[in-house]
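From the thread on structure requests for the teaching lab: each student submitted one protein with a one-line request. Submission from student K.M.:

"Model DUF7595 domain-containing protein from Panicum miliaceum, tokens only."
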Amino acid sequence: MSIKRQHARTDSSNLAASSTPPPPPRQPLPVDLLLEIAARAEVVTVLHCSATSKPLRRDILDPAFARRHLTVPHAAAHGGFDPSLLLGFSYWLDAGYTSSGVASAHVVEIPPSPRPRVGIHPSTTSHLASLEPLAARDGLLVLRHASSRDMLGAVLCVFDTLIGEVTCLPPVGVRVFYPPALLAVGGDRSFELLVADGGLRCQTFSFSPTNGQWWSPVRSVGGPPGLKPPRGHAVVLGRTVHWLCVRRSLLPMPFLVNRYVLAVDVDAALPVDLRDSSGLLLAAVGGRLSLLAVDERLEVSVWTLTATTPAAAWSRDLVIRTLEMERQAGRLHSPLRMQGFGERSGAVVLKTSDGKLIRLDLGTKRGDHAARGGDKSVQHVCLHEIDLASLLQEEKEPLNMKAWSSQLNELERAMTA
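Reply posted by the TA:
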């Protein structure tokens, strides 16, 4: 009897279990989340993830993921480091330290590893044989042609060791003295590079697959004199670049060596480079503090100081190349000196090296030579302007320019008497 009741209870429990709907199937994790997890894992784990599905494998094989894997912080199993992230290292083998007849060369070393890892592109060694390595970050390698080592306008290029592509840079505007610094590297192969000469005249190069490439104007930071070329590479923290520098004392102990950590805030430097302040003019444009600048190419630019976080920065709002075209045509020569600016009219007065005056209109971007000039003693140029309300008032009573000029002449004679 008890056995029958037990069977009955068992049958009823099975019936209840069969009437319960099965749990819903588990939803797969989004691909973006899987890639974020894989980016923080070791290389072996990444390889296992790539074997789970073809779409995930395709995303992992994308160069953007490889660069992402290089940049994210990993677990602290090795003190926060992941040895599998070392792809290799390269150096310049100078002929002066080798046997006779061996040319200087760029050598790429790939250390052995017991585990699989992301590899350097096979074309790395052949492409870089005659180029000096200068800096590296996140799979990018900055190189220089050895023949342009001490030249103004050195030939630099950036090599992507993951996909084997080379970006050739236009000639540099300074002599490269400090080791270049890769300020930023993006997952789409975009990057920003800083170069500087011995006087800390800096220039940045920006590259983007979508927006193109360009050099910024040369900016003068002004560093301590007498520093020796730094050994080692630049250290980039945020937007600040650090170099370890050495300077020898002359007196009283000529053999005393002082070491400095030179830090340059990239965004705090003046917007353009000039050997003196004659090419700069402080002004107010649209109610904001601005700098007018003319460089050695006779390119005139307007820079505005904008309040940003955490510090104020200079932004270039306007560039005029009218005078640069005259220079290329041989009708004008540098240097030019800023003499005056009209905050209302936008007129800029510049003086050439032989004393001629040029008026440049920021609104129309057109320039013309003043009727007078050729006197190198021209100083204290002032622009006489009128505001809109007064101008409307003067339309009723036209200004008598002849009488005004006569009054100025009388005042000048009285002051010189």
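TA comment: The first helix runs from residue 2 to 19. The longest strand covers residues 240-248.
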